[in-house]
Structure formats: structure tokens, C-alpha cells
Amino acid sequence: MAVQNVNAAAAASTATNPLKNQVASQDDFLKLLITQLQNQDPLQPMDNQEFAAQLATFNSLGQLIEINEKLGAVNNGQGSMNQYNAASLIGKQITSAGNKVSLSAGAASNIGYQLGANAAKVVITVFDANGEIVRRLDAGARSAGEQSLVWDGKDSTGKSVSPGAYGIEINAFDVNGKRIAASGKLQGLVTGVRLDGTEPVLEVNGVDVPLSSVIAVRASR
Q: Which residues of the chain have pLDDT under 50?
């Protein structure tokens, strides 16, 4: 009786089982192997090599199940560690990748960004939640690296806008008018953490920041 007979028996058992969506366990395969030995043809007993091959397959199955259980434990531990790390950031100043800025009532907001090279001109466009342009800010010439610009919280007409989260777009150009790589950075104080999703989310001045996007942490001033 060949090794595939065990697999065929397992498939038949699963097909008639009302719990067919469950994965066969190590005990299930052991029972099938014992049943196969009990019902083999006495005139044509199982070959030693076939039996050894089935035992090797059974042993491999046990090892795979054990590895899967250990990986599950590692994933659970990693998730708990991420939650602990996220909670420890409450009250800290963080910097994260992202094209958003948070505006508080009656206060100016610092817009952080990164330039890939020296820029002869940098223009920052601020958008509201509907994608409408609120303000265009001319940052002038800036050097490569981390930069920032203070937005006074007013629109293009000089009127103060409502507090909340706003989108930003960074456009930078060299002396020849060629576009330079530029990306926004969100900076602020972590005031809370949400742990109800697949990844912890930090609350930073009203903006949701995934933990994986944090690139710097500083003590609060």
C-alpha cells in the first residue's frame, strides 16, 4: 500500500466530516496510519520502505505543526511588544513620515519636510479635508536635509482657518527649475494610542499616525 493511500484516506475522511474546513491534526494522521496497518492485506503486507516513508512523513508533519505553533507564539509576542512600545510614546514628541499637518486653535503650526538636495525654491501647498487649496507658502531657497516652516493658520485671504488636520504638498526645484525629491514630515506630541486595529495608531495633535511610520522620538519639552 503506497504512501498516497494515507493521503487519500485523509481526504475521504475530510469529505464526509461536517467539520471539513478544519485542518487535520497530528492525531488524525496517526489514527489513519494505525487503521492502514490493521487493514492491510496479509498476503501483501506493507513494504518496510513504504512504512519507513510514511513514518518519515508523519514525523515531518509533527515538526511542521510544532514550528507553526512557535511562529504563532512569536507573532503574538511581537504584537504585545508593539502595543507596549506605542503606549510608552504617550507624552513624547515624535516625527513621522506623512504629508499632514495639525493645526491647533489660535496657534501656529510647524510644517516639517525633507529635501533630497539643495533647493532654489520650495513651495508648500496646504489642503483642507475636501482637497481644496487653503494656502500656498513660499519657503524660498533651502538646503538639503530636514527643514521646517511655520504656518500661521491662515488661508490665502488672511482669515484664520478651523483647527484640525490638513494635507500638505511639498514642491522643490533647483536653480535650473528641475524638481527635487521632497517629502513631508509630521511633528507633534503623542496624546493617545489606539490598539483596536492590526497596528497601533498614535494620536498626534488630532492626526492618526501608524506606529510603523515613526522615524524619530524626542522627550517632550
A: 1-22, 77
Q: What is the pTM of this model?
A: 0.55
CA angle 174, 180, 183 (to 5 degrees): 135
Reduced to 3 states (helix: H, G, I; strand: E, B; else coil), residue 72 is helix
Element containing residue 197 per DSSP (H, E): none
Encode pLDDT of 136-176 as tens digits: 999 999 999 989 899 999 999 999 999 888 999 999 999 99
- The H-or-E segment that residue 78 falls in is helix 48-87
Domains of the chain: 4-87 (no CATH), 93-218 (2.60.40.4070)
DSSP state of 3: T
What b/e sequence results for 18-50 when a residue is b if at least 16 CB atoms lie within 10 Å of its CB, and e otherwise? eeeeeeeeeebbeebbeebeeeeeeeeebeeee
